[in-house]
Specification:
Blueprint (H helix, E strand, L loop, with lengths): L1 H27 L1
């Protein structure tokens, strides 16, 4: 169970970082 939670948290952080990165890229354009 613990490992699954870590994977979910990592995926969530990656998704948030990706969205912010895309938003930053759109601002530069």
């Amino acid at each position: 169970m613990g490992r699954k939670i870590i994977i979910v948290c990592t995926a969530l952080i990656a998704a948030i970082t990706g969205i912010q990165f895309i938003r930053l890229g759109l601002q530069w354009l």
